[in-house]
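Components:
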Amino acid sequence: MKFGVVTFPGSNCDHDMIDSLRKDLGQEVIELWHKDKDLSMFSKEDCIVIPGGFSYGDYLRCGAIARFSPMMQSVIEFANKGGRVIGVCNGFQILCEAGLLPGALLRNANQQFVCKNIFLKSENTAASITKDVTGRPLMIPVAHGEGRYYADDATLEQLFANNQVLFRYCDEFGNIVDTANPNGAIRNIAGICNKERNVFGMMPHPERATSNVLGNTDGQLIFQSLINNN
Amino acid sequence: MTFTAHINVMPLKELLDPQGKAVMSGLKNLGISNVHDVRIGKHITLQIDAATKEEAKQLAENACQKLLANQVMESFEVNIQ
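Structure:
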């Protein structure tokens, strides 16, 4: 399989993502530009990555403008045909605004931009991205001001009933507690997927935790699961 | 005719508005008390070419539903002048 990483004006985690996938995980990566449209080189088992940053300056709302870019039209089409798409941080916000994932990301409840390591627990093994992520909680960095996941009660009920909740914030022992929630996300939700399990979104940055030099390789487990279970 | 749509987009009432909360503590620091809630949204104006006021309103509401407001977290109201 191969990865495609999209760069928008204002993306700033695109090269972290490319570097992590290429060098730390040894994957083929094609760099994609927001003005282009061509995704013909990708097949269903490949994965398009929408990286973090501040696409289009977060104008109007985070991710609201990016969804109109030519490349996003192709990404939406790719996802609707069953291709795999993952959005991290701003990428998660874009996927919600594009209607590929339910819910929205609100301003952090604690009025702060949060930039630190947090712990994540994978909720189920139904999706390719969490299939091999079992056992101990993962330590992954977050860096966002608008990461408070929110969805109405009916949507939440469906997310849990369909095993669409991928990751929840927990303490280092795996307990889902309020004190481990960095942004006030409803029910500690850090990542979700769509019903068809081919579109994934998460606020934490696994690409910042794939290198021994950086002292943390927990993020590799997430990408490796995606790679192994295509 | 050209109409002006005045659009207010506000965070849903049931959701915490951290921006409003921060501004409220600023008001308190200034000694402006008696304020017990601050909520912050956006005011958007559109200049619309339309035959009637109703048509302009419909157009503005469509814009709100599709882009200007995210109804998962925001509500909107449109006034045409």
